Amino acid sequence: MASSLLSLIFITLSFFISSSSSSSQTLVLPLTHSLSKSQLTKNTHHLLKTSSLRSTKRHHHHKHNHHHLQNQKQRQISLPLSPGSDYILSFSFGSNPTKQQLMSLYMDTGSDLVWFPCSPFECILCEDKYDSNIPTTPFNISSAFHLPCNSPACSAAHSSLPTSDLCAISKCPLETIEVSDCSAFSCPSFYYAYGDGSLIARLYQDQLSLPLASSSLNLANFTFGCAHTTLGEPIGVAGFGQGVLSLPAQLAKHSPQLGNSFSYCLISHSFDVNRIHKPSPLILGRSSFKHEEEENKESKAVANGDVQSVEEFLYTPILHNPKHPYFYCVGLEAITVGKKRIPTMENLKRVNRQGNGGMVVDSGTTFTMLPTKLYEAIVTEFENTIGSVLTRANQVEEQTGLSPCYFYDNELVSLTKVPKLVLHFVGNSSVTLPRKNYFFKYMDGSDGKKKRNVGCLMLMNGGDEENDGPVATLGNIQQQGFEVVYDLVKRRVGFARRQCATLWDTLNQG
């Protein structure tokens, strides 16, 4: 039933637009989770292990994402790794209304480009990565415009190299390099790589259409990457990171009120597809302040018992990262476990001139990754709090990649012992996580004996601190049940507790 509902959402694409004043618009799009029942035929251990491994790989590629390969300036970035922990966004491409194609892509705040498979398309080692819930028909580029190598978009896709260097890469003659005129030469392919896959793509332009309730929003000359060959990646990516080629940046050129801020509210799923009855709202143009009409609507919702509370956003500044400019980096000052506040190291509070330090807010990583010393301090406090009450589940830790894990018998009694967890961001912004956001509980029966309740900490060891990029990643599991807003004008990220399914209903009633 849930799978059919998700499929229906994909097909119908129920996009909505609401307005609280003539100068402010919000566009609400459905984010559907890529978790499927076909994946749940495998045991929970396998799903958690896979997600933990992918989170680790993606975190390390956040650190090491610039490479010089085969004498060409190319960029290696981390991308969503495969279905199971990611969120899908769909729109239509093509300037011919009768031949537009629906494309379903991963929504990713950790990269800055929109790309997808194009016909003819070959995906190497992708046999087990296709999901029947996600349309994967390659795009027909017959109507698209292939960008030349002297276009600003081509420079943005490759690196910050001057246009003349890009022209040289594509074998542009010397006389044209001297006058920086390469219009007759194609933009060279660029290479993206990540934990267990990669792709080669070229840049094109075509129309992107966002169907609305009564009309459609068409973005002419939308720039995207077209991949004919990928390794382990059959589905494209809608990059929402900071960069001129990201979806918000290109949308801002057409409609600044829609592209200068966005937010999402991820519905909690606990790796159970049956819990996902509605899409998670992605809100383009989310204002950083409340209009009178919105306040009245939310007040009525509270009075009717539709939401438990309406919280204001707690903001933390976006830190500029000169080495990884498309990341949304923030500073983390401390983490409170139970009654103990654990200060973080200095390089987690700020980003230096070399682009090292800070925490990446990432919709494409499942579990939060922390530096070893901070992670170990948190584990120690968990052990001090519940280690003497609950039994350590060492075998489960090996099977899932999560640690520490504990067996418990009486849920009502045992889970009250799990300490609270608060993230203290720079800017006096303290975010208290719901227990289900950091302590995953399920029924374990992997050893063939009587099934037992087990709970695992969903924060992971991201490795030793290195002077090579961000030192931590905030994963999407920890973001569930919050509306996370990216205010690109005031350069800040905000968090507010929400009932995301209710928020979807409330926004669409407008």
TrEMBL record:
Q: Biological process GO annotation list?
A: proteolysis
Ranges of biased composition (kind: Basic residues): 55-70
GO CC terms for this protein? extracellular region
Query: What are the Peptidase A1 domain coordinates in residue numbering?
Result: 87-496
The stretch of residues making up the signal peptide is: 1-21
The domain of life is Eukaryota
One matching Pfam family is: TAXi_C
| Assigned keywords, A-Z | Aspartyl protease, Glycoprotein, Hydrolase, Protease, Signal
Identify a single GO molecular function assigned to this protein: aspartic-type endopeptidase activity
CDD domains the record matches: pepsin_A_like_plant
Q: Where is this region: Disordered?
A: 52-75
Against InterPro entries, the record matches this protein to: Aspartic_peptidase_AS (IPR001969), Pepsin-like_plant (IPR034161), PEPTIDASE_A1 (IPR033121), Peptidase_aspartic_dom_sf (IPR021109), Plant_Aspart_Prot_A1 (IPR051708), TAXi_C (IPR032799), TAXi_N (IPR032861)
The family line of this record is: Belongs to the peptidase A1 family.
**Protein name (Swiss-Prot/TrEMBL):** Peptidase A1 domain-containing protein
What is the scientific name of the source organism? Aquilegia coerulea (Rocky mountain columbine)
